[in-house]
């Protein structure tokens, strides 16, 4: 069966702040990437079958996530990207580097479904007449992380219809987290991972800006898991530790996986400044325990919704540029948002059993809070 994920406040699972985990910084209304005006997110989630992996039949634990920078507007945004470790894929990035613009929505899925999602986006453009230019060309941006421990990844369960569903259901407001969309079958830092989001509101002089991120979190060694500065992974080293030996038909090593991070802001940053922002995403990942391991594709993209008139094929345009000497608060907001989004993904994720009985366990909320108290991070 295929579940279409609806975005609603009532659908929200407990988040990291809800269970008492402390974070620095001021979040936006939804504490989500959609706090940046215009950004929309949609999902298609596939959860089907159980038991032995029969290629092509399942079990399937996968999906697609869609992010629109300007909602249903096809007006490009300034963008740039960065890779901490390149064992992964994000299509369309060479043109982003060359042109400075992101011209499409972003899709995130599993490793083996990048191609079908890329082609589906182009077909969706045609069906929707989304790019209203004669003779248009563009390069869809599709990223991935590997869900082959839980998902029949060589069964190719993500279809064109799933990419369409993610694109067609995109909306603003609260964003579902955990086992949803492209994050459905993902694992993170020894526990169940998936989709997470967070945001920060920053006041710089007389102006207020919003910065938000969405992560598809599937990386890291349990030993390195750190929450609010507390070595949770070391403290929980024996919790469910024997389960790693029960994983069948996988060559996954500790730390293998990947993380995709999409960052949005309404600050008027130019492409070279967005490169600087994208680089700081790695620091947020490092705070929770990411090390850019060999088997991890850690790829990030950042865009700005400011300067809506910047993209013009015919004329010279004037744009606003944020001053470099005032950019540090945006760097700080990036690190804070990424850190919280990853923990949000883990807090929201439920224990999931996938192919061949492989199981990824949810982060134990009660034990985490107990350890935060032990280390004096909360009372």
Give a description of the structure.
The protein has 379 residues and is α+β, with helices and mostly antiparallel strands. The protein has one domain: L-amino peptidase D-ALA esterase/amidase, CATH 3.60.70. 22% of the residues lie in helices and 25% in strands. It contains seven helices and 15 strands. The strands form four sheets. The protein has a six-stranded mixed β-sheet, sandwiched between helices. Strands 1-2-3-6-7 form a five-stranded mixed β-sheet. The protein has a two-stranded antiparallel sheet with strand order 8-9. Helix 5 links the parallel strand 12 and strand 13. Helix 2 packs across helix 3 and helix 5 packs across helix 6. It is globular and about 60 Å long. The chain starts with a strand and ends in a 5-residue tail after the last helix.
CATH class: Alpha Beta
C-alpha end-to-end distance: 44 Å
* Helical proportion, percent range: 10-25%
CATH hierarchy: architecture:
4-Layer Sandwich
Q: What is the mean predicted local confidence, pLDDT?
A: 93
Helical segment count: 7
Tell me the structural class: alpha+beta
Q: Using the alpha-carbon principal axes, give the shape.
A: globular
């Amino acid at each position: 069966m295929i579940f279409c994920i609806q975005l609603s406040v009532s659908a929200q699972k407990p988040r990291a702040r809800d269970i008492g985990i402390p974070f620095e910084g001021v979040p936006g209304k939804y504490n989500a990437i959609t706090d940046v005006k215009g950004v929309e997110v949609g999902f298609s989630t596939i959860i089907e079958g159980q038991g032995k992996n029969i290629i092509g039949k399942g079990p399937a634990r996968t999906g697609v996530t869609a992010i629109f920078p300007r909602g249903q507007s096809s007006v490009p945004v300034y963008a740039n990207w960065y890779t901490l470790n390149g064992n992964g894929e994000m299509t369309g990035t060479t043109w982003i580097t060359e042109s400075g613009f992101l011209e499409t929505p972003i899709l995130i899925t599993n490793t083996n479904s990048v191609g079908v999602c890329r082609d589906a986006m182009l077909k969706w453009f045609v069906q929707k007449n989304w790019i209203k230019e004669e003779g248009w060309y563009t390069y869809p941006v599709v990223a991935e992380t590997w869900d082959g421990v839980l998902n029949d990844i060589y069964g190719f369960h993500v279809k064109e219809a799933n990419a369409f569903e993610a694109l067609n259901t995109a909306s603003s407001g609260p964003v579902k987290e955990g086992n949803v969309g492209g994050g459905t079958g993902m694992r993170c830092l020894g526990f169940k991972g998936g989709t997470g989001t967070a945001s920060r509101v920053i006041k710089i002089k007389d102006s207020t800006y919003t910065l938000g991120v969405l992560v598809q979190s599937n990386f890291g060694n349990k030993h390195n898991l750190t929450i609010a500065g507390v070595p949770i992974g070391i403290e929980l080293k024996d919790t469910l530790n024997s389960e790693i030996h029960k994983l069948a038909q996988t060559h996954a090593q500790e730390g293998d996986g990947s993380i995709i991070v999409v960052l949005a802001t309404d600050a008027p940053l130019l492409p070279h400044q967005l490169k600087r922002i994208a680089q700081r995403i790695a620091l947020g990942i490092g705070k929770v325990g990411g090390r850019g391991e060999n088997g991890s594709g850690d790829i990030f993209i950042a865009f700005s919704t400011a300067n809506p008139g910047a993209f013009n094929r015919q004329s010279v345009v004037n744009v606003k540029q944020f001053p470099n000497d005032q950019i540090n608060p945006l760097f700080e907001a990036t690190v804070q948002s990424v850190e919280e989004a990853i923990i949000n993904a883990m807090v929201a994720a439920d224990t999931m059993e996938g192919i061949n009985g492989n199981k990824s366990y949810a982060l134990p909320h009660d034990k985490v809070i107990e350890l935060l108290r032990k280390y004096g991070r909360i009372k």
